[in-house]
């Protein structure tokens, strides 16, 4: 009986030990499963962040990039431009949720570039921009020669991302004759700013033939007017066209940049667009309209003598669109400081002047006729 009792005790203890071991094994397995599932779920949640870039995007490797997610160095490819050819979730310890395969124009790849190490490049030009083909341009991105179109002016009609040499974009350029270069790399063009601005006084060139719309300019050669609007327009050698309004109210609305020039000359050392005279006075407006005049010439009645000292021609012969100087009290000028104005028209021995701070008041401009034109001094 005692033997039997001892047998049952041992058997019971062994059974309990086996049951305990089974329970512990099950618990460990469950906890392990929970931890594994948590990691998977956490990674999945991390990778639920939408990819910032997509296949086909043109991107640039950051200037501080160190390495790909697999440890391959990116230092020698910093600032390189390429195209994304594949996108994959990034499972390594990284601040990026995605990695990208970047293909460069030479065919080389970086296959595991982290999202943090790339950036897209915005296009420098937009549809409608007037641009010029660079003088050293060789070929389009498809290999078509650009040599015969160097310095041509055209309008951007489409823009597409394209990694090519140092460019991230290519453009379809349409020229005034209707011809196109459809794959011009960004590095081979430059936008052209307008030469003139609204308010500039210009003169139609003596050899001008017609406006950009074909309207004749022959009868308006040498006419002087004010620019009231400017629009980009590729036409012959011009990148812009202008609406020019004349004194009689007539307009030429589509004058190409090549067919006009400043009504005042810039052929003096003191010439500058900068204007340091105080706004509202006659000196400010005269300088604004006649950039060939220098700054710091003093009061209006001092301009003629100052101009002589600076090498300008000063005499009593009027000419359109130059500065006339009135001594104190002369022709209604201020008795102390005199007056300066712009000559707009000559009829016999009288001149039509445009001035600020005259009969219209401080800061305002108006026109008036002045007799005895040869009594005053003119700065040429």
CATH domain fold name of the largest domain: endopeptidase fold (from Nostoc punctiforme)
Radius of gyration: 39 Å
Looking at the structure, what is the overall shape? elongated
Q: Briefly note the structural class of the backbone.
A: alpha+beta
Write out the strand line-up for the largest beta sheet, numbering strands in chain order.
Answer: 16-21-17-18-19-20
Order of helices and strands: HEEEEEEEEEEEEEEEHHEEEEEE
Which architecture of the largest domain would the CATH scheme give at its second level? Alpha-Beta Complex
What is the CATH class designation of the largest domain? Alpha Beta
Terminus-to-terminus distance? 141 Å
The CATH superfamily of the largest domain appears as endopeptidase domain like (from Nostoc punctiforme)
Task: Please mark out the parts with pLDDT under 50 across 5 or more consecutive residues, or reply none.
Answer: 1-5, 27-46
What value does the average pLDDT take?
85
Helix content: 10-25%
Strand share of the residues?
25-35%
Largest sheet: 6 strands, antiparallel
Number of helices: 3
Total count of domains:
4
Pfam family, one: CHAP
Domain Peptidase C51: 257-380
Organism: Weissella oryzae (strain DSM 25784 / JCM 18191 / LMG 30913 / SG25)
Protein name: Peptidase C51 domain-containing protein
Q: How are the SSEs ordered, and which strands pair?
A:
Elements: H1 2-46, E1 58-61, E2 81-89, E3 98-103, E4 109-114, E5 118-120, E6 130-133, E7 153-164, E8 167-174, E9 180-185, E10 189-191, E11 201-204, E12 224-235, E13 238-246, E14 251-256, E15 260-262, H2 282-289, H3 303-309, E16 314-315, E17 323-326, E18 339-347, E19 350-356, E20 365-370, E21 377-379
Antiparallel strand pairs: 1-2, 1-5, 2-3, 3-4, 6-7, 6-10, 7-8, 8-9, 11-12, 11-15, 12-13, 13-14, 16-21, 17-18, 17-21, 18-19, 19-20
